[in-house]
Amino acid sequence: MLHIEQLSKKYKNNIWAVQDFNLSIYKEELVAMVGPNGAGKTSIINCLLGVISPTSGTIQLDTYPNQSKKFKQLIAYVPDDLILPEALTGTEYLDFVTSMYQYEDPEKQSSLIELFDIKGAMSEPIETYSHGMKKKIQLIAAFMLNSKLIILDEPFRGLDVEAIIMTKKLMRKYLQKGGSILLSTHDLKAAEYLAQRMVILSKGKIVAEGTIEELKVENQCTDMEDLFMKVSMLRDRSAQFEKIIENF
Ligand SMILES: Nc1ncnc2c1ncn2[C@@H]1O[C@H](COP(=O)(O)OP(=O)(O)OP(=O)(O)O)[C@@H](O)[C@H]1O
């Protein structure tokens, strides 16, 4: 499936955003990628999508390198930011995505529109959508395709409770049907609930990787937040933060 090998990214300002990052994601597997702000998650996703060029390393989906057209057709992406063609209606946007990916499944598309309950807004321009509705249209666009891997960057942010529940169920179903998911999130509870494996990044490097159980045992933690603070080396700063809050 997806294989990322020895990926490194140094920006022009000489910042190493990612160093020697290795990750494989297999069929029916969801891997959660977590890490503090600036850990390198977005840089990895942007390298994967070909938005930026890595300084070194390779990325392949099956046998297709990430620069290939086939790779791009097999990957769907829901970004955290909501950059959308605001003048298009929901229907026009989905038509645009369909033509870009050269894949059409009208039945799947309309069932997703029903699931996310935005049928009434489909003929309205996206600029009139709420934050949550914009997220929903992006989720519909990602799940309606014939992808092998979906990259989800904070997919639940802005969604209402019902949509969060539905999205989690949809993700599970997508995995059962043979897909793979890379989930980038700060939501440790969702990551713990959904992921088969977790990668924890800090300052561009993997500091922990494994199943949630393995990570908890290895680090003698029962709680996800405690585990995260420990392996991302933030726990040392906790005492200082506690003091600031106490004096606040
Ligand atoms: N275009 C850029 N030019 C220079 N440095 C950059 C650029 N983009 C990101 N960086 C730096 O690379 C490092 C990793 O940033 P990145 O955005 O990948 O982290 P992140 O894990 O996605 O963070 P967040 O959780 O805040 O979204 C940071 O030190 C950041 O300042």
TrEMBL record:
Pfam families (alphabetical): ABC_tran
Keywords: ATP-binding, Nucleotide-binding, Transport
One Gene Ontology term of the molecular function aspect: ATP binding
SMART domains (UniProt xref): AAA
Statement: the UniProt record of this protein carries the keyword Metal-binding: no
The organism's place on the tree of life at top rank: Bacteria
Domain ABC transporter positions: 2-228
KW Transferase (keyword) present: no
Name of the protein described by the UniProt record: ABC-2 type transport system ATP-binding protein
UniProt organism field: Croceifilum oryzae
